[in-house]
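Holo prediction. Input below; ligand is heme C.
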Amino acid sequence: MKFRNIISLVTPFILISSFLATQSILAQDINLGKKVFSECVACHSVEPNVHLVGPSLAGVLNRNIGSAPDYRFSKALKNSNGVWDKKTLNSFIENPQAIFPGNRMPYSGLNNATERSALIAYLETLKP
Ligand code: HEC
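Structure of the complex:
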């Protein structure tokens, strides 16, 4: 068998197995993220439009900052013009007061970068 034929036989298997590996890493992230969410659950529900002390986090990814309907946000969040993309969420979770000074979230921040990215992977699964 020619070398090129071997490559063309083997390549799909490599692609499929690396795809599966990526999928299971993501599943692990989401599981870890769900656990880390225990830090947030006292103040945030994941049900759409169910607000506790904090606004519902259902569909928070790519939502305009401070825009969840029927929740009274602080001016610090309401008047910011951004969107909750992954980068902004990551900074906010790491140190809420550093990125939006004067916001009313009483949470000092999550230092562990792995936990933050897992938490964001979990938040991404929450549909609006
Ligand atoms: C002790 C209560 C409390 C805890 C714990 C808490 N939050 Fe909050 N969160 C709030 C409050 C209150 C607000 C609204 C702040 C404002 O209006 O300034 C908020 C706002 C937010 C927002 C902005 C939502 C939007 O629609 O603009 C995000 C995102 C968020 N919190 C994520 C988290 C995550 C993730 C955690 C856990 C790591 C967490 N919060 C922990 C109370 C809390």
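DSSP finds five helices and no strands in the chain. That is the main takeaway for now.
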